[in-house]
Design a protein that fits this description.
0% of the residues are buried. This protein has 64 residues and is mostly helical. The radius of gyration is 28 Å and the shape is rod-shaped. The chain starts with a helix and ends with a helix.
Length: 64
């Protein structure tokens, strides 16, 4: 009977370790999603700036 209790204890420890790894992975995923959102915002702002500057260049060329 002690072999079964020992195996149950080992399985519980393995389950706890797996749950801890899953929790850490979820935390990393949340952080990665947040970073992706920030990168998308920066890229969008850069694209807007490029569009604006291209319009300014076109306007200046017409005025020239």
């Amino acid at each position: 009977m002690s072999e079964i209790a020992s195996e149950i204890s080992a399985l519980r420890a393995a389950l706890a370790a797996a749950e801890a790894r899953a929790s850490a992975a979820e935390g990393a995923l949340v952080a990665a999603k947040s970073e992706l959102t920030q990168v998308k915002a920066v890229a969008s702002a850069a694209e807007d700036m490029i569009r604006h500057l291209r319009l300014q260049i076109a306007k200046l060329r017409r005025e020239q």
